Amino acid sequence: MTTTDPRSARIPADELAADPLGSLLRVLELETLPEDDGRADGADVHFSGGSLHQPNKRIYGGQVLAQSLLAAGRTVPDGRLPHSMHGYFLRPGDLDVPVELAVERLRDGRSFSARRTHAIQHGKPILSMIASFQESQEGVEHTTTMPAAPDPETLRSAIDELGSIPVPAARSRSHESAFDLRHVEGSLYLDAGPERTDQQMVWMRARGPVDGDQLLHRALLAFACDQIMLEPVMRRVGSSWATPGISIASLDHAMWWHRDVRVDEWLLYVQSSPSAQGGRGLGATRVFAQDGTLVASIAQEGMLRLPV
């Protein structure tokens, strides 16, 4: 995908609906930009990527997280995979402008590598991220137990729930989604449900096979989780995505990968929200493979403003 022309930066809605997973994989195929001694951002390598159509006309945060992680991963020694990421969403992204990814090599040690990535548009960062990578090593090991959950095949999919609703936001979560989401307690797409709780569980799986290495699968996990990270906050206060006048934005994102993961197999997101205050809410998530293996832990704070 060539992204030097702003007109080619966005994959339009019709192409996205025709092949959601393929479209996502296309925007994650980053282009290496030529060296330019005139750049003053201190980065070592620059990449560029496009964006997926979004009904709110802003870049989806999970996309930039995934692109930033992939860019960083392309600069580390072979055999090192991301084990942690910490990022801040700084500005809204412009769908019609390519995302430039500037990667700074912070350190390469005997076992670990650290990278800083700035996702840049219009000369300013829209995301700043630091990620750490590690070689595969032996060591102490333990894991928490996955809670009991119904089989994902017995639950209603967001594709079925929203597929017949002719609203752009509904299409974004059904026809145009690269992932199949199935809420255990019922989704928050149309209403908040009968119970106010900060707990929820969601099964999620890519809508087709993903051929790619572990770096790609870990980046896709970062992409997928951003769309539900603040839902426990919403569930606790009795709001839904359809609440009139609601305003939600991700502020920061932290992620730890514990073990290899495949996003084209069912993953259970076990979620909670320990606190909300000052117009901000914290969402926490543990991600389990279907066999009960804990593969990742995630935390995100976001802005949540409700109509008075």
UniProtKB/TrEMBL annotation:
CDD domains: Thioesterase_II_repeat1, Thioesterase_II_repeat2. GO terms for molecular function: fatty acyl-CoA hydrolase activity. Gene3D superfamilies: Acyl-CoA thioesterase, double hotdog domain. Residues 169-303 form the Acyl-CoA thioesterase-like C-terminal domain. GO terms for biological process: acyl-CoA metabolic process; fatty acid catabolic process. Belongs to the C/M/P thioester hydrolase family. This is Acyl-CoA thioesterase 2. Pfam families: 4HBT_3 (PF13622), 4HBT_3C (PF20789). Residues 58-134 form the Acyl-CoA thioesterase-like N-terminal HotDog domain. Homotetramer. Keywords: Hydrolase, Lipid metabolism. It catalyses: a fatty acyl-CoA + H2O = a fatty acid + CoA + H(+). InterPro entries: ACOT8-like_C (IPR049450), Acyl-CoA_hotdog (IPR042171), Acyl_CoA_thio (IPR003703), HotDog_dom_sf (IPR029069), TesB_ACOT8-like_N (IPR049449).
